[in-house]
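hey can u check if this looks right to u? its 84 residues, i copy pasted from the old doc so theres a chance i mangled smth
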Amino acid sequence: MSCQFTIDVDGDPADLIAKAREALAGIGGKMIGDDQAGEVEADSPFGRIEGSYSVSGQAVSFVITKKPMLVSCSMIESQLRQLV
């Protein structure tokens, strides 16, 4: 089951990407790509999370293609929204 959500940012979307990259690195995950698009990988206590991101104007869109059943889409979205 995939998740899709978009986060609108007031400032530079590259700042959200940088914060997400730093947060993921802190838990052993990574973002592969640049300030416009790329892939997201992270391990959670429940299993692997994978997806992609893309920037369009002041919005960053995420598509989560793989996640553990015990981790809801809203949990992932909530964690990313905390970075804004």
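The first strand starts at residue 3 and ends at 8.
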